[in-house]
Design brief:
Length: 251
């Protein structure tokens, strides 16, 4: 009987690229109702809401005109990452964004962590906009930045990995200047995360600790890949028993 995968194997197992499109068309999941317009409005709301209503009010009194430099650096990092997103979107043309890209390149646990970063990004960015009207809770905005930058870095790393593991994969768009652009994107994201306050690291570490707990206690045993592996093991058992019986039968 085939042994179950070890914890390490579960953490790094990757979802095959060819399985993304069939999974996206089969039923059983949540109905996809958010389209391009809704996603655009979420992005604009998070960017303008956090950037104008909150960030400038908190940063300008301390940084003064230098805040323009900070915004320029952040814009450069976002532009570099956008190129990496474009390549992975053309190679893995399904919904899921950085979660799907991490699942295909870095493995299940990395994808799970990125999913929690995205949850943090969307949930907390909305909360930060709401509380910004009261002009407090700066840690919320920093926490959103941490989750977003972590997801950006993973996507950029995914480009490097997929270029190496699947060089012949059809890509309608390729990052120019590879591997320089993805590396610069990763370095820019890491530098921006490094500049965040210590409290943000503590909060982000606690958030990831919760995600690790949920994964170890529930998600790794209920993964789609785990269910597929169980079906393969069960279907192979009768064949293996018949093979063993045939070898033990005297001629």
């Amino acid at each position: 009987m085939s042994a179950r995968p070890t914890l390490r194997q579960q953490l790094v197992r990757r979802k095959p690229l060819e399985s993304f499109e069939p999974d996206s068309t089969t039923g059983g999941g949540l109905r996809r109702t958010v389209g391009a317009f809704q996603l655009t409005m979420i992005g604009i709301g998070a960017t303008i809401g956090t950037g104008i209503f909150f960030l400038l009010g908190a940063a300008v009194p301390e940084a003064g005109p230098a805040v323009i430099v900070s915004l320029a650096v952040a814009a450069a990092a976002a532009a570099l990452t956008a190129l990496c997103y474009a390549e992975l979107a053309s190679a893995v043309p399904v919904s899921g964004s950085s979660y799907s890209y991490a699942y295909a390149t870095l493995g299940e646990f990395a994808a799970w962590a990125v999913g929690w970063c995205l949850l943090l990004e969307y949930a907390v960015s909305g909360a930060a906009i709401a509380v910004s009207w009261g002009q407090y809770l700066n840690d919320l905005t920093d926490l959103t930045s941490m989750g977003t930058l972590a997801a950006f870095a993973v996507v950029s790393l995914g480009v490097l990995i997929l270029r190496r593991t699947a060089p012949d994969l059809e890509r309608r768009f390729r990052v120019p200047g590879h591997p320089v652009i993805p590396v610069l994107s990763i370095l820019a994201c890491v530098w921006l995360m490094y500049e965040l306050p210590t409290d943000t690291y503590v909060l982000f570490g606690g958030w990831l600790a919760v995600s690790v707990t949920v994964y170890l206690l529930y998600s790794r045993r209920n993964s789609r890949l785990e269910a597929d592996a169980d079906r393969i093991r069960r279907s192979a058992q009768p064949l293996r028993r018949r093979s063993e019986q045939s070898r033990g039968t005297p001629r």
